[in-house]
Amino acid sequence: MLLHIRHETLYRYDRPAKHSVQSLRLTPRTETGQRVLAWNLTAPGRQSQQIDAHGNLMHLLTLDEPHEEIHITVAGAVETEEVTDSAPADRGRLSPLVYVPDTELTHADEALLEFAARHGVKQPGRNEVMRLAHAIRDSMDYVSGATEVSDTAARAFSLGRGVCQDHAHVMIACCRALGVPARYVSGYLLTGRDDHIASHAWVDVWLAEPERWFAIDVTNGVPGSVQHCRLAVGRDYLDACPVRGVRRGGGAETMSAKVEVSGDGLQRRPATPRPRLLQQHAAQQ
Amino acid sequence: MNEIFNEMYADGDTVRTHYSPYSDWLAATAPDRIREKLVEADALFRRAGITFAVYGDETGTERLIPFDIVPRIIPAAEWEFLQRGLRQRVTALNAFLHDVYHDQEILRAGRIPAEQVLCNVQYRPEMQGIDVPMDVYAHIAGIDLVRAGAGEYYVLEDNLRVPSGVSYMLEDRKAMMRLFPELFARYNVAPVEHYPDLLLETLRSVAPAGVRDPTVVLLTPGAHNSAYFEHAFLAQQMGIELVEGQDLFVDDEIVYMRTTQGPRRVDVIYRRIDDDFIDPLAFRPDSMLGVPGLLTAYRAGRVTISNAVGTGIADDKSTYPYVPEMIRFYLGEEPVLANVPTWILRRPEDLAYVLGHLDELVVKEVHGAGGYGMLIGPRASRAEIEEFRTRIVADPARYIAQPTLALSSCPTFVDSGLAPRHVDLRPFVLSGRDVVMVPGGLTRVALREGSLVVNSSQGGGTKDTWILAC
Amino acid sequence: MLSRTADHLYWMARYTERAENLARMLDVNCRMTLLRQEEDVVRRRWTSTLATVGQLEPFLAARGTVSQSAAIDWISFERSNPGSIEQCLDRARENAHAVRGTLTSETWETLNSTWLEIRGFRRDTVSAQALANFFEWVKFRSHLARGVIQGTMLHDDALDFTWLGTYLERADNTARILDARFEMLAEDAANSDDAGDYYEWSALLRSVSAFEIYRKVYRDLITPRRVAELLILRESMPRALRHCMSRVHQVLVKVANDRSTETLRRAGEIDASLQYGRIDDMLATGLRRYLSHFLSRTGDLGTRIASDFLVSDATG
User: Fold this and answer.
1) CATH architecture of A96-230
2) What's chain C's average pLDDT?
3) Do the beta carbons of residue B208 and residue B301 sit within 8 Å?
4) What ipTM was estimated for this complex?
5) Which of B60, C24, C39, C233 has its CA 20 to 30 A from that of C278?
6) What pTM was estimated for this model as a whole?
7) Shortest alpha-carbon distance between residue B276 and chain A (Å)
8) Would you kindly state where each structural domain of chain C is located, as residue ranges?
9) Tens digit of each residue's pLDDT (9 = 90 or more) over C287-312
C-alpha cells in the first residue's frame, strides 16, 4: 500500500531559548515490509544524521542562537507490504536478547508479573502474542490524557487506562517478565477516521517458532499491517520517540502537531494528533 | 583461608627482609617524634585540601581521608609478577570489550553464555559495531588486589568505569617524602610522580584518527561531587581544562567547549561521570550533568570518551568469574593473577553447593552496589541466612558466591600505637598505544580493628605504597 | 579560558565589590543620622538608600514600613534578600568555590574565612559602634581580597575577568551613591543650611574614601560641583567613574574575541566620553539625568559582556 504522510511539529517558547539540541527519529525505517519512496525533513539549525543503536535514522539538530520556536516538518511517501514468515522482518544488527532486560519505563511490578504469568507464555507464537495483547487491551481502556508521557508501564497498568504508549509498555513488560524479547515501535497509522490515532506506538515481539520479530498493535488488537508505517524501534519510548530534546532557557513550552496520513492516493481528512507522544523532554539548566 | 598474612612480620614476630630497614628505623625513632609526625601529616593534608565529600556540612570544613604513616612495602620481584598479571588481565578485558561490541566470538564459542552479556543492562547496544581508537575501551583500569592467608594475591574486583583514588596515591607519596626524607635514603623506592604524564600521554594516544594535537579535557560532575578534589587535582597536574557538562556542546557531530575566546574543539574527554549521565538524549533524560548529543559525536568517531561507554559489561560482578576464561580465549595464556574462587549460582551444581554452605560464604547480588544485596555468611544470623536463601532460590542467576577472604594486614598507627589492620591494593593500569603503569598503587586500610571494609566512606584510610626498585 | 570559569571569577569580584559598597553606603547613612535626628528625614534617607540599591520594593513587601534599624538589618544581614551584604559575601564565596582550582589558596582562604566570620556578627546588636565596626570589617575584607588577588594570582586572563567585575561594579556603585546624594540635595534645597550641607558632602566623600583626596586635590571648600567632578571625571581617583571605565575598557581590549567588537566599541565610547567630558556640561543637562543614563549604559555593557564572554544563560 502506498502511504502519503505529512507531519508537522511546532514548539513555541515563552522566552527565547538560548540553546536547543533535539534528536529526531522522524524518518521511516528502511526494512522488509516498507520502502521509502520519497522523504523530506525540514527543520531549523544544523542537523547531522546517523543510524542509531537500533537501526533508526536519527537527526541531531543543534540551535545555538536564541530562538522562540522550533518548527519541524516531515513529508513523503512510503510503500508498505505484508510481512510474512517467508518474508520476515529484518533481525537488525542487535541480538534480540538486548530487548530482554527491563528498563525503568517497562519494569514489571508484582501486578504485572502476576498478569504476565496468567496471560503470557515463555515461547510464544502469533496466537499467544495476540491473546496477551487482547488481555491487555481488555484491562486497559484507551483514555487520552489519563497518563503522562513519563509514566511507567506499572503505573498505567494500575490505573487501568492509558494510550498506545502505555499499551505498548505494558505489553513489553509482560513479555520481558517471561524472558521474551520485545521492543517498542513508533510510527504512523492510516486509520481513515479523523478521531483516531495517526502518530502511533506498538510492539515487536520475538517469536520462538519460526524465530522472527512479530509486530502487534495492542491498542487496536491487530498485528502490524500495511497501514502501519514504522519510524523507529527501541527498548522503550525513550529510545524510539520521534523528538527528544534538551534546551537552555525559553521558559514554558507549548507544542502543537499535525499529522496527515492517506493511503493509495485516497485523501483522508486530517487526523487529530496526540500531542503527548511528541512532547519534548524539556530540561533547563 | 582464615589465616591472616601480615605484610611486615612472618611467623608472628620475624620481620620480613624488605621491612627490616623500616623496622630498624622505627626502633631507633622516639615515639614522641612519630606522634609529632602524625600531627604534621594531618596539617599537610589539610593545607593541600586533600579531601572528599567536599562541603557537605554547614561550616565549609572538609573531611580528610585518614592517612597512615607506615608504608606498605612490596619487593621488586613481587611487583614484577603483579605487573605481568595486571597487564595480561587488562589486555584481555579490553579484547573482551572489543569482541562483545563487534563479532561476539567468545559468545559464539560458548565460553561465556550469550544471555550473560546481552541480557545485562551494562551491555550498551549503542556501542555495538562502533570502532574506538586502538580498540581500547578501558584506558584507565583500577584493579583491586588482596592477599590471603599464605600471601597469595587475588583479584577481588576490576574497576573499568571511572576508577578513582589515584590522587591519594600521589599525595601520600608527596607527604611521606616531606615527613620522612631519611626513610627514602634507606630505601630505593620506585617513583610514581610521573603518573599524570603517563595518563595524559595515554589519553592523547587514543584521540580520534587524524587529530594531530588533540585537546583533552576532564569532565567532572561538579564541585559537589565527592571526588571533586581528585578531578581538579588531575586536571591541574595534566594542565588540561576541568569542564562541566554545561561547558561543552555538540554541533554537527563535533564537541566544543565554551571559552572566552569562542568555541574550541575538544578531541578527548576524560570523563568522571557514569555512562547513565553523560548524554541526556541517549541515557537518563533527567540528567543535566552531561552533554546532549555527545553520544552521537562519539559514535561518529569525532571525539574519544575515556573510559569508553559500555565498559561496565566487563567489570560487572556477574562477568568477573569469566575473566580467567577471557585470558585463555583471547591471549591463549593461563592467568597470572588468580580470581577469588566464585560460584555462579545460575549453574545448578554451584547453586547446590552454595545453598549447603551459606554460613561460610559471601553471597553477592550481581547488580547490587556497595554492601546492598550481600550476605556475609559467618556474620549473619540464622534468620538472615534463611531470608537470603529464599531470595537466591527465587532467582539464582542474580547471585554469585565467594569464600570469606581473610585480607592481609599491615602495621598501622592507631590510638593505642602500632597494630595490624587489613589492607588491599589498587594499582592503576593505563591502556592506549601501550599498556603502562607506574610502580605503585593505592593501598587502602580498614582502620577499625578486625574490619575488612577499606572504603573511605566507611572508615577506611590510605597508606603510601612502596615498590622497591631492583 | 572556559567561559564558566570567567563567569565565576567575574561574579566573585562583583559580589565582593558590591558588599564593600553596600557597607560604605550604610556607613555614611549611619554617620549622617547621628547628626540629624528628625524622624521623617531619617525615614526619607533610608527610603532613598533602599531605592538606590534597588531594594525598596522587596523591603516594603517583607518589612512594611521603613525604619533605620530595619533598613540596616535588611541590607546587612537579611538572608532572604539576595542583595544583602551577607548574601553578597555568600555568593562571592560560592563563585570562588566553583573555580577553586583557578584561585590561589590564599585567595580561596580569604573569601572562605570572610564567609565564615560574618556569622560572628550578631544582627541584634545595634549599637552605633558595633555597626561601624561591622561596616569597617566588610570594607577591610574586600581590601584584603583585592590585595590577595593582586599579590598572589597569575596575571593572566583569569585576573582580567576578575578586574572587569570589580571595576564595572564599582562604577555602578559610585554612580548610585552620587545619584542618591543629588536626589536628596534637590529635595533639601529649600531648607538646607550650610553646616548640614557640609556634613552631607564630607560624609559622601568619606563613603568613597575621598575626603582626604578632595582636600589634597582642591585645597578648598567642598562644593557639589567639585565633588561631582572628582567622583566622575578624575582619572587618578580610584572610585571615580572615569577611572573605573578606563580600566573596563583596557581589559576589554585585552580579552577581545570575535563577538565582542560592539561591546568593545561601547566601552570605548563611555571611556572617551568620560575622558573628554566637562562637568559643567553635565550639570547643565542635569547630573541625575546624566547618571541614570550612565547606569543604563553600564548595565547594557554588563549584559553584553555576559553574552560575549561568559555563561550567557546564568539568568535562565
Assistant:
1) Roll (3.10)
2) 89
3) yes
4) 0.89
5) C24
6) 0.88
7) 13
8) 1-153, 155-316
9) 999 999 999 999 999 999 998 999 75
**Three-class SS state of B311:** coil
Q: Which residue has the higher pLDDT, B466 or A89?
A: B466
pLDDT digits (tens, 9 = 90+) for B171-188: 999 999 999 999 999 999
Mean pLDDT of A171-192: 94
* Residues 6 or more apart whose Cβ sits within 8 Å of residue A261: A3, A4, A5, A188, A189, A190, A191, A198, A229, A268, A271
C-alpha to C-alpha distance for A213 and B161, rounded to whole angstroms: 34
CB-CB neighbours of A80 under 10 Å? 21
Which one of B59, B260, B272 would you mutate to disrupt binding with C, by most C Cβ within 10 Å of its Cβ? B260
In this prediction, residue B7 carries a pLDDT of 94
pLDDT value of position B305: 98
Tell me if chain A has a CB within 8 Å of the CB of B114. yes
Are the Cβ atoms of B296 and A19 closer than 8 angstroms? no
Q: Which residue in B268, B272, B269, B289 sits closest to B280, CA to CA? A: B289
CA atoms within 13 A on the CB side of C217: 18
Q: Which residues of B touch C115 (CB under 8 A)?
A: 60
Contacting chains of C (3 CB pairs or more, <8 Å) are A, B
Tell me the shortest Cα–Cα distance from A201 to chain B, in angstroms: 20
B2 pLDDT tier (thresholds 50, 70, 90): low
CA atoms within 13 A on the CB side of C177: 34
The answer to whether C4 contacts B262, with C-beta atoms less than 8 Å apart, is no
Contacts of A52 in chain B (CB under 8 A): 126
**Residue B47 burial by Cβ neighbours in a 10 Å radius (0-12, 13-18, 19+):** exposed
**Chain B CB contacts of A58 below 8 Å:** 296
Apex CA A207: angle with CA A206 and CA A211, to 5°? 100
Identify the contact set of chain A against chain C, taking CB-CB distances under 8 A: 18-19, 248-249, 284-285
Residues of C in contact with A252 (CB under 8 A): none
Could you tell me the pLDDT band of residue B49, with boundaries at 50, 70 and 90? low
Lowest mean pLDDT among A203-207, B88-92, B234-238, C193-197: C193-197
Domains of chain B plus CATH, in order, are 9-208+303-336+406-467 (no CATH), 209-302 (3.40.50.11290), 341-403 (3.30.1490.270)
Q: Pick from B48, B38, B86: which is nearest to B441 by CA?
A: B86
Question: Which numeric CATH code is attached to A2-80+240-278?
Answer: 2.60.40.2250
Helix, strand, coil distribution of chain A in percent, nearest 5: 20, 40, 40
Supply the pLDDT for residue A88: 72
Q: Is the pLDDT of residue B370 over 50?
A: no
Task: Name which of B43, B51, B44 is nearest B167 in CA terms.
Answer: B51
Lowest mean pLDDT among A161-170, A194-203, A225-234, B253-262: A194-203
Q: Helix C39-52 and helix C3-35: axis angle, to 10°? A: 170
Per-residue CA distances from A137 to A140, A143, A206, A213, B96 (Å): 5, 12, 20, 21, 43
Quote the strand ranges of A27-127, DSSP E.
Answer: 34-42, 46-51, 57-63, 67-80
pLDDT greater than 50 at residue A285? no
Contacts of B119 in chain A (CB under 8 A): 97-98, 100-101
